[in-house]
């Protein structure tokens, strides 16, 4: 086929997984300071299926749209002014977020300094599972909460994409980690570094653990998790609420209890991603890929992801 086109998963209207279709579209060209990356694998995140359904970041997108922000691949071409990367370099990134990046495709372009070197110990499928989830965890725990040794950190939805990486990053920072997840995930989470695990389906977490300094809430208002977290947060402690920010109910409850709150929306950050890659290559952090799919199976992957029962991440392998 022409080098001017490529395969990509596109949506022409918001809706269910059935709107995802593989088509041939124009191949992007790198502008000055940008690189063209041949994508080997693209990570799948909850924001993908939420956006596909008309929620998430849908208001910032224009149809037709190619979803996907997590990518791992090889630099194919560099634009004028690029000094940090060269053709042949293996890289991974979460480019452009929350603007469209078009990760479910054979090629992407983005500013070179949004890319980090792929961890040498990871396959492209594993590396594609890393950026958005790891950066969310890092920016929450390191940049926002400033977690230090000896603190107690409660992580909700600890077995998910962000959660399982947050457990390991918090442990690396010296924290005592309390993790909520279904019971059959507990052995695995303890292997990752969780000191205490709570099965939220059988016990209310606020009745099962003592006070904590930081809560990383990856659930939000579902079942009142955000507001209920105030009860276990020490005065002066912090709740970082990721899914939909700080609700009015959470702000009110936290204010009465002298608990701080913060929303978080992840940003591209090559320096932080490079730091995480170092932890991965040192063995301090590992990324879990439950299952990989081909581009044509993007709809099937979304259906599985929407069950919210996956362990770690799902990935599309662009070249299988």
UniProtKB/TrEMBL annotation:
It comes from Streptomyces cacaoi. InterPro entries: ADH-like_N, ER, GroES-like_sf, NAD(P)-bd_dom_sf, Quin_OxRdtase/zeta-crystal_CS, YIM1/Zinc_Alcohol_DH_Fams. This is NADPH:quinone reductase. PROSITE patterns: QOR_ZETA_CRYSTAL (PS01162). Coiled coil: none annotated. CDD domains: MDR_like_2 (cd05289). Keywords: Oxidoreductase. PANTHER family: ALCOHOL DEHYDROGENASE RELATED, RETICULON-4-INTERACTING PROTEIN 1, MITOCHONDRIAL. SMART domains: PKS_ER. Residues 15-316 form the Enoyl reductase (ER) domain. The keyword Oxidoreductase applies. One of its GO terms (molecular function) is oxidoreductase activity.
């Amino acid at each position: 086929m022409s080098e001017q086109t490529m395969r990509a998963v596109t949506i022409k209207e918001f809706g269910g997984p059935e709107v995802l279709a593989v088509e041939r579209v124009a191949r992007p060209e790198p502008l000055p300071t940008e690189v063209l990356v041949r994508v080997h694998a693209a990570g799948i995140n909850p924001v993908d299926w939420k956006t596909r359904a008309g929620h998430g970041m849908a208001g910032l997108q224009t149809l037709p749209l190619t979803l996907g922000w997590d990518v791992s691949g090889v630099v194919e071409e560099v634009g004028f002014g690029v000094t940090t990367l060269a053709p042949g370099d293996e890289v991974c990134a979460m480019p452009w977020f929350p603007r469209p990046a078009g990760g479910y495709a054979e090629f992407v372009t983005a500013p070179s300094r949004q890319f980090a070197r792929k961890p040498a110990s990871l396959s492209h499928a594993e590396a594609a599972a890393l950026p958005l989830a790891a950066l969310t965890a890092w920016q929450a725990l390191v940049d926002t909460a400033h977690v230090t040794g000896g603190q107690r950190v409660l992580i909700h939805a600890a077995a998910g994409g962000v959660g399982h990486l947050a457990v390991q990053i918090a442990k690396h920072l010296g924290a005592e980690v309390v993790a909520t997840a279904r019971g059959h995930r507990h052995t695995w989470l303890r292997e990752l570094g969780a000191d205490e695990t709570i099965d939220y389906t059988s016990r209310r977490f606020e009745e099962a653990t003592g006070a904590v300094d930081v809560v990383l809430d990856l659930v939000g208002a579902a079942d009142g998790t955000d507001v209920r977290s105030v009860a276990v947060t020490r005065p002066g402690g912090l709740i970082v609420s990721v899914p939909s920010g700080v609700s009015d109910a959470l702000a009110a409850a936290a204010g009465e209890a002298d608990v701080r709150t913060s929303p978080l929306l992840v940003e591209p950050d090559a320096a932080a991603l490079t730091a995480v890659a170092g932890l991965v290559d040192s063995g301090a952090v590992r990324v879990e890929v439950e299952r990989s799919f081909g581009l044509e199976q993007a709809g099937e992957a979304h259906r599985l992801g929407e069950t919210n029962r996956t362990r770690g991440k799902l990935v599309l392998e662009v070249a299988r």
